[in-house]
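So, can you check what follows?
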Amino acid sequence: MSPTSGPTDVFIIGAGPAGLTSAYLLSKAGKSVRVIEKDPVYVGGISRTVRYKDFHFDIGGHRFFSKSREVVDLWNEILPDDFIDRPRLSRIYYGKKYYAYPLKAFEALRNLGLYTSAICMASYAWAKATPINPAKNFHQWVRNQFGEKLFSIFFKTYTEKVWGMSCDDISADWAAQRIKGLSLGAAVIDGVKRSLGLNKAPAATLGEQGGVKTLLESFRYPRQGPGMMWETARDKTVAMGGEVIMDRTLVSLSFDEPAGLWSVVVRTGAGADETYQARHVISSAPITELVGAVQPRPKSYGEGMKLLYRDFITVALIAPTSAAKDFPDNWIYIHDPAVKVGRIQNFLSWSPHMAPEGFACMGLEYFCFEGDGLWTSADADLIELAKQEIGKIGLIAPQAVVDASVVRQPKAYPVYDDAYQSHVEAVRGELETTYPTLHLVGRNGMHKYNNQDHAMMTAMLTVENILAGERRFNVWSVNEDAEYTEAGYSGAESALTSERLVPKRVAA
């Protein structure tokens, strides 16, 4: 074990959006900061940009949109000159046909046919007449909002691909958080407007639209992917005196109450242990990893270890643009059960700077659990599977693929099963009470499937709490008081009139 280095003000676990937002703001405020990151190469977590030869892969797809002025201002401060505006287009692939998402009413009717459309409307009417109250799982929640038939067409297959479990076993919280605000009526009305071209908002009202969740016309995006943001945040943090150490895994975390110091043991990729001390610790690591490291072992250890995560694999296929079908979408949701792929990214539609001229690059996303058959498959087998499936969908002929790369992303999504909330509350309750200087932030750190700007806001409020010397803001209520609505055009414009994503102050 290496000698213990001098204590820092704040030790940060994880160099993703939450971790690096914390590090940047604390360094800017004059605090000493040390960040560890498990990845040996990339910062940014799931928001990193992976490079393969001259190609850039966005792991998951990250639109830079927020209704928070503070978040947008911070993006602009960190990366002032490298944003481009991009049109938003997403579609659903089902039954060998494409459906615009959000729905275009006339297109959906034409694709489904009058008979199926009539069944959908009758099913919707029946659901409204006989709601299931309270809705206890994802299936029941969506059925209440859209009817059983639309649930089976547009929600069931894709959701079960993503989560690897029945919609009956997924908490209704998932639907309430991610598609809250969407209803069949709102979608149809918006779809009719889209079909008739009547929904274009004048520039003066762009920041005031508060429309339906997920209905976003355009967004901002770094020229070569979201990793640009987090690599720049790292570099600016280091320039201000902060430290970002790669290829480090958390081993143990213990608090010396008389000294008021945390002792943090980490392990290098080469297997050597290092010890650091700090007055505060910010963790964006998965809760399972955190409770496994805290010493003495928390009473809520068993609860924390029951939390589940979903992992995924991106298989990036490269082909000449002449051999790829014209594909303007940022991504396509694959609802067809005949293929395993869940979503297909078109990296050039995110930014034309993501691939060399003359080449198309598409990322096929396969959702899995770390250690299962897909996860442990050889890269060559995954590439062959992806080539056959993209050929079946009709975007690229398998023989036209000239190169490929495989990227595995562990713990991409915290699972919202029927017991997750009680597990999180047990861990949170104990750690907050026992360790006031231990702060949980971000998606995995709080086991909240939040967006990039929400993860950043949890970090921003945590920094405010640390600088104030007291817990002024309840970071856990960010997703409750700040409903995330992808309404409007670009984040920079909408933020001009937006309210803060700041939750209520903690009651005295």
Remarks:
- Residues 101-196 form one domain.
- The first strand starts at residue 8 and ends at 13.
- The chain has three domains: 8-43+63-84+224-306+418-497, 101-196, 309-414.
